[in-house]
Design brief:
- It is a single chain.
- By secondary structure, the chain is an alpha/beta fold.
- The protein contains 16 helices and 14 strands.
- The longest helix is centred in the middle third of the chain and has 18 residues.
C-alpha cells in the first residue's frame, strides 16, 4: 500500500471513531481487567461483534491518554503485509501527532504482526490488541510475545449489561423493578446479547445474525484454514447451533447428517468453530485427566444463535436457553480468576456445572427452568447433591426462571434462586 492509501484509510477511521458518542457506550465489567499502566500488550479476545472495539475505546477515553487507532478488519487493508506496518506507523504519527497508546483492532489479519507489537512495546508504547481467532492470536502470543501480554476474554453482553442497555434497574428490590428484570430476562433468553441486538432500535435479528454467522464461517474459518469442502462444514456448524447444548459424538453426528467426511474431520471442524468463538466447549468433571477429555459438551456463544438465525430449526426450549446463559455467565466469572467450569455426570445423575480452582471445588450449579413438577424437582436436586458430594462441595445452587427457596435435600443445603437475581449477583 502507498502512503496516500494508508493516509486515506486511517483518516477515515479516525473520523469514524471521533463520531462515537460516549453516551452510547455500555460499560463492561471486563474494562477493569485492562491495565494501561502495564508494559504488557493488552489483548482482548472474543467472537465477532461482542464489543471488543467499544470496550477498548471506552477504556482509552476514560484513561485520558492520547491514542491512535487502526481497524485491520477493513477490506481496503486486506492486502496489507508486515512490510507495510512501518508506513502505517509513520502515517499515524502524521494524523494523530505523538500518542501514548496504540489500539490495533483485529491485527491477526496481518502476517508477522507480533514482531511489530514487540517493537512498540520495547519503545514504551502501550498497545491494545483485539482478535476474533483464538488459534492464530493465542498461538502467536504464546510463541512470540512470551510473557508480554495480558489476555482478556470478552463475551456478548451479560444480563446486567443487557439491563443497562435497556434502562432496566438491575439492583432495586422493589416489586416494579423485579417485574422489569423478569421481563428483561425473558427477552434476553430469546434475543440474546450481541450488543447491536441488545439495544432499542436494533437491526433485524435474522439478517444480522445471518451476516455475522457467514462472516465467521467464511472469513474466520474456511478461508483462514483453507477448507476445501465448504458444504459439510457449514452443515455441521448450523446443525450444532440448532441442537446445542449437546455432548459431542462425532460418529453419531456423521451418520445422522449422512456426511462423507470422517469423525476426525468433524472434530477438526468443531475445533475451528471453537477457535473462532462461535462455540464454547465444556469438559466433564473427573479427578482423572484422561476422563476429563471425553464427552465434550458444546454451547453457542450466544442464545440468539440457537434460533434467530435465518433457516434455523432449533425450538424455543427455554431450559436449554437458561442453561446456556448460566454457562456463559460462569465463564465470565471464572476467567479473571483462572477458575475452570465442568459438567458432572455419573451412571445415574447429572449436574450442569462444577466450578473449580485447580483441584479445589468452588461451586455446583444446577439449572432448571422450573421445579414445579415432582419428577423434575427430584431429578434436578438428586443431580446437584450427587455432584456436590462427588467433588466435595458442602452446598449447591439451583438456578431457575423465577423460583426461590432454601432447602436441605439429601443432607445438603441447596439454594434455589431465580435467574434474574443470580445473573446479576457478581461477587
Amino acid at each position: 500500500m502507498t502512503r496516500t492509501e494508508w493516509e486515506q484509510v486511517l483518516a477515515e477511521q479516525r473520523e469514524e471513531v471521533a463520531g462515537w458518542a460516549e453516551a452510547d457506550i455500555i460499560p463492561r465489567a471486563e474494562e477493569r481487567l485492562v491495565r494501561l499502566d502495564s508494559d504488557l500488550a493488552q489483548v482482548v479476545l472474543g467472537v465477532r461483534r461482542s464489543g471488543k472495539s467499544t470496550l477498548c475505546h471506552s477504556v482509552l477515553r476514560k484513561s485520558g491518554r492520547t491514542f491512535a487507532y487502526v481497524d485491520f478488519d477493513d477490506e481496503r487493508l486486506a492486502e496489507a503485509t508486515g512490510r507495510d506496518l512501518n508506513v502505517m506507523l509513520e502515517t499515524l504519527y502524521k494524523l494523530y501527532g505523538d500518542f501514548q497508546c496504540l489500539f490495533l483492532d483485529e491485527i491477526q489479519n496481518i502476517p508477522e504482526w507480533y514482531l511489530f507489537v514487540n517493537r512498540l512495546l520495547r519503545r514504551g508504547i502501550r498497545v491494545l490488541v483485539t482478535g476474533s481467532n483464538a488459534k492464530l492470536l493465542g498461538g502467536e502470543l504464546a510463541t512470540h510475545l512470551t510473557g508480554r501480554y495480558n489476555p482478556i476474554a470478552l463475551l456478548p453482553f451479560s444480563f446486567g449489561e443487557y439491563c443497562l442497555a435497556h434502562g432496566v434497574d438491575a439492583g432495586s428490590p422493589t416489586t416494579w423493578a423485579v417485574g422489569a428484570r423478569r421481563a428483561a430476562l425473558d427477552a434476553y433468553l430469546h434475543d440474546g446479547a450481541f450488543p447491536a441486538l441488545a439495544r432499542p432500535g436494533a437491526p433485524d435479528a435474522p439478517k444480522y445474525l445471518e451476516a455475522l454467522t457467514n462472516a465467521i464461517l467464511e472469513r474466520d474459518i474456511r478461508q483462514r484454514y483453507h477448507l476445501r469442502h465448504a458444504a459439510p462444514f457449514r452443515t455441521l456448524a448450523h446443525y450444532l447451533l440448532d441442537i446445542a447444548p449437546t455432548i459431542l459424538n462425532y460418529a453419531a453426528i456423521r451418520n445422522r447428517l449422512a456426511l462423507s467426511c470422517s469423525p476426525n474431520t468433524l472434530a477438526a471442524y468443531v475445533f475451528y468453530l471453537k477457535q473462532a468463538y462461535l462455540l464454547r466447549g465444556l469438559l466433564r468433571w473427573s479427578p482423572k485427566s484422561h476422563l476429563r477429555l471425553r464427552g465434550e459438551k458444546i454451547y453457542p456463544v450466544d442464545v440468539s444463535l440457537m434460533s434467530n438465525r435465518r433457516d434455523a430449526f432449533a425450538g424455543e426450549n427455554l431450559g436449554w436457553r437458561l442453561e446456556t446463559v448460566v454457562f456463559l455467565e460462569l465463564l465470565r466469572r471464572a476467567s479473571p480468576k483462572s477458575d475452570a467450569v465442568y459438567y458432572y455426570q455419573d451412571a445415574r445423575n447429572e449436574a450442569d456445572f462444577v466450578v473449580c480452582h485447580g483441584r479445589s471445588p468452588l461451586a455446583v450449579v444446577q439449572v432448571a427452568y422450573t421445579l414445579e413438577t415432582p419428577k423434575v424437582r427430584a431429578r434436578e436436586l438428586r443431580g446437584a447433591v450427587a455432584a456436590a458430594k462427588a467433588v466435595g462441595c458442602r452446598e449447591a445452587w439451583v438456578v431457575t426462571h423465577h423460583e426461590r427457596e432454601e432447602i436441605t435435600f439429601g443432607g445438603l443445603p441447596i439454594h434455589i434462586v431465580p435467574a434474574h437475581d443470580w445473573l446479576i449477583a457478581r461477587d
